[in-house]
Specification:
Elements: E1 17-22, E2 33-40, E3 43-50, E4 58-61, E5 88-93, H1 116-130, E6 138-143, H2 145-153, E7 161-165, H3 179-187, H4 193-199, H5 201-204, H6 206-212, E8 219-225, H7 229-249, E9 257-263, H8 277-287, E10 300-304, H9 308-313, E11 316-317
Parallel strand pairs: 1-2, 4-5, 4-6, 6-7, 7-8, 8-9
Antiparallel strand pairs: 2-3, 3-5, 9-10, 10-11
């Protein structure tokens, strides 16, 4: 069958072998489509994998929001893109989405007692160990809520590389009139936003998670659509401010290479949309060590900025 899925090559047949296992009994299978269901810490963590024999790099893709009226869980975004790279590939389903039919996005929050980000990362780290690929050879990728996961998970993969597109980075300031509020009610039952801010800020704000982390990523490419005004204003610009301050206060952050790529794309759905597939694959290929397969589209520019205002104004094009 050809499973309906976003951003997939419709000519690719979806026919994975299903493996049910626990964290302790997880095994790997190479050179074929696999659908894993791993029981761990009270969750069933599902992911699609295509692991290449002898691959020296791993790309892991997080999950962005779904459309409940259209999408059937598990929903593996970009599963067919494994054909576009030589690295091993994983894309996972956020187990938070199983906690309520009204949830369109979960940001991998899970339960107040058990954070799903950590449970997911345990499983992914175990898989990476089984295929003998280290964190420095791992690229984490995500769009929107998936980008939030990638940035949060980066501290569990020391010196990894990260690519995010139009991500949320601060769920305390992000207001979306629906999915976020549903997640808060379901995952943090009965707790006020003030309580969550005081007690769970490291689950809600990337910069707070990084501030307390032992390890940090080596490189982050942050891709932001300039037509996505809300995310530029409430997410990217404050993140830049916070990161700039931390670099002054903590030498560790000076060793994290952060690039901002601004692109210009608007669709009938508005500006909260990612880059074209070819541009994303070009960045994947760059970080996976194959070099850029094609030039990034003319509407996507890499900028080197000193202040948030420079980011808004387009900065200066880096060489």
């Amino acid at each position: 069958m050809t499973r309906d899925n976003a951003w997939q090559d419709k000519k690719v047949t979806y026919e994975p072998e299903l493996i049910d296992c626990t964290f302790e009994t997880l095994t790997v299978h190479f050179d074929r489509q696999m659908h894993y269901r791993v029981a761990h810490k009270g969750f069933v963590i599902e992911f699609f994998a295509f692991l290449h024999t002898g691959a020296t790099n791993l790309l892991i893709s997080g999950q962005d929001a779904i459309q409940r009226q259209r999408d059937q869980l598990p929903y593996f975004y970009r599963w067919s893109w494994h054909r576009d790279i030589t690295a091993s590939f994983i894309t996972f389903n956020d187990p938070t989405l199983y906690m309520g039919d009204s949830l369109d996005a979960g940001w991998c929050q899970g339960y107040r007692e058990v954070w799903a980000v950590e449970a997911i990362d345990n499983v992914l780290q175990r898989l990476a160990q089984l295929v003998a690929i280290g964190p420095e050879e791992t690229v984490l990728y995500g769009i929107s809520a998936g980008g939030f996961w990638a940035l949060m998970a980066a501290v569990c993969f020391p010196r990894c590389q990260v690519i995010v597109e139009i991500p949320q980075v601060d769920l305390l300031t992000y207001k979306d009139d629906g999915p976020r509020e549903k997640m808060i009610r379901r995952c943090y039952k009965g707790r006020s936003e003030d309580y969550i801010s005081s007690n769970y800020s490291t689950r809600m704000r990337v910069i707070d998670r990084w501030r307390e982390a032992i390890h940090l990523p080596a490189r982050v490419i942050y891709c932001q659509n300039i037509k996505d005004y809300k995310h530029t204003r409430t997410q990217m610009e404050p993140f830049w401010d916070d990161l700039s301050l931390l670099r002054e206060q903590d030498y560790r952050f000076r060793n994290v290479e952060v690039e901002f790529h601004m692109f210009n794309r608007k669709t009938p759905k508005g500006g909260h949309v990612p880059m074209e597939k070819a541009d994303t694959i070009a960045l994947w290929s760059k970080l996976l060590g194959r070099g850029i397969a094609r030039d990034i589209g003319k509407d996507c520019v890499s900028i080197e900025a000193k202040t948030p205002n420079e980011l808004k104004e387009g900065g200066r094009v880096s060489s």
